[in-house]
Amino acid sequence: MENGSVVSNISKGIATITFGHPQSNSLPGVILNKLADEIKTVGANAEVRVIILRSLGEKTFCAGASFDELVAIKDYESGLEFFSGFAKVINACRTAKQLIIGRIQGKAVGGGVGIAAAVDYCFATTQADIKLSELAVGIGPFVVGPAVARKIGVSGMSELAINATAWRSAEWAKNKGLYAEVFEDIAAMDEAVDNLAIRLAQSNPEAMYELKRIFWQGTEDWDQLLTERAGISGRLVLGEFTRNAILAFKSK
Questions:
Q1: 14: domain range?
Q2: Is 246 domain-assigned?
Q3: Do the domain assignments include residue 174?
Q4: Is residue 194 included in any domain, yes or no?
Q5: Residue 1 pLDDT more than 70?
Q6: What is the number of other CB atoms lying within 10 angstroms of the CB of residue 203?
Q7: Is residue 38 one of the residues assigned to a domain?
Q8: What is the DSSP string of 171-202?
Q9: Total domains in the fold of the chain
Q10: Over the chain, what is the mean pLDDT?
């Protein structure tokens, strides 16, 4: 767990994928790539009818990009590779044949909001506030932006992206369409997650696949689009403004 983890479990047609990192479930490149690969592997398993995507612990769902790794980026190629990890996770969710249920137990920042937007049905607790903080450190939510805008619209996404230091409540996220349901505590949320997963595991997989294809219509170019967006972030992270902003943020 020192360097993070991604594990999956399959039972009765339900695959549960859990990622974690000791730094508030942040996402270094190795975890991003493992998570994308695990979603692809599980999605290719004919025995899996539905996927649950979750993180470890009872507090933060995902703190987004690893600041330690952002500071360590020294050239454009490394930056492109790192930010492409977020693209790979979103595209793995998009192209999986199964419907994916998201379980958001706590705050989600940056890439964590992107993951919440990339699942097909998202449960959350009242503690699951969200923030797109990228502009505050000199970058921007370029890779996750299309996924977030698809769920909450361009106006909602731009509100998050422009006012990058402000948290939005879980209720705000529900009203915008990011979260389908919000619960007072984790136990109630987990009961709802399990109930929906069980129902979906008993549903027609072909019908669910066709539904998912309809839900994601218009995103067929995202392999290229999100890679191009990763290139923007990979370029900006090398700039003096961004590096100073990240270092200042880390020192708080």
A1: 5-187
A2: no
A3: yes
A4: no
A5: no
A6: 14
A7: yes
A8: HHHHHHTS-SEEESSHHHHHHHHHHHHHHHHT
A9: 1
A10: 95
CATH for 96: 3.90.226.10
Cα–Cα distance measured from residue 233 to residue 212, given in angstroms and rounded to the nearest whole number = 29
Task: Indicate the pLDDT class of residue 102, thresholds 50, 70 and 90.
Answer: very high
**Which three-class secondary structure state does DSSP give residue 219?**
coil
What pTM was computed for the model? Answer: 0.95
Can you tell me the distance from the alpha carbon of 32 to that of 9, in angstroms, rounded to the nearest whole number?
18
d(CA 197, CA 219): 25
CA distance 115 to 84: 14
Ramachandran assignment for 226, one of left (phi > 0), alpha (psi -120 to 50 degrees), beta (any other):
alpha
pLDDT in tens, 178-235: 999 999 999 999 999 999 999 999 999 999 999 999 999 999 999 999 999 999 999 9
- CA gap 62, 117 in Å, rounded: 13
